[in-house]
Design brief:
By secondary structure, this protein is mostly beta strands. It is built from no helices and 11 strands. The strands form 2 sheets. Strands 2, 4, 5, 6, 9, 10 and 11 form a 7-stranded mixed β-sheet that branches. It has a 4-stranded antiparallel β-sheet with strand order 1-3-8-7, with no helix packed on it. A hairpin with a 6-residue loop joins strand 4 and strand 5. The termini are far apart. 32% of the residues are buried.
Length: 127
């Protein structure tokens, strides 16, 4: 089975930065995109950012554009989410996931296009 593990969450003051990491393990027989989602207490899970297999194509939610940067590592089973200028409304559990579909340029904002998910990492932003 495929497993994803996120790390890098923590508590930071508003205006600060955090870098989240995600690593995929297990049998993956094709290229895939990776996405980041978040869920705050009492709210639905929402799309944050995504990157294609090589990282050449990226996508961001409007709420994080200009502040967050998503990338793929030199080993393509990894993804990173650099979060700058954090706001209290960014506080949530952040999840990474891999796309079900394969393709060097495949990317999606739809959570239903992702088949495996990480356990989540908590990001807390104090004001």
């Amino acid at each position: 089975q495929v497993q994803l593990v996120e790390s890098g969450g923590g508590l930071v003051q508003a205006g600060g930065s955090l870098r989240l990491s995600c690593a995929v393990s297990g049998r993956t027989f094709s290229t895939y995109g990776m996405g980041w989602f978040r869920q705050a207490p009492g709210k639905e899970r929402e799309f944050v950012a995504a990157a294609s297999w090589s990282g050449s194509i990226t996508d961001y939610a409007d709420s994080v554009k200009g502040r967050f940067t998503v990338s793929r590592g030199i080993l393509k089973n990894t993804s990173y989410l650099q979060m700058n200028s954090l706001k209290p409304e960014d506080a949530a559990v952040y999840y990474c996931a891999k796309t079900r579909n394969s393709g060097n340029y495949y990317i999606s904002r739809n959570e239903y296009d992702y088949d495996y998910w990480g356990q989540g990492t908590q990001v807390t932003v104090s004001s």
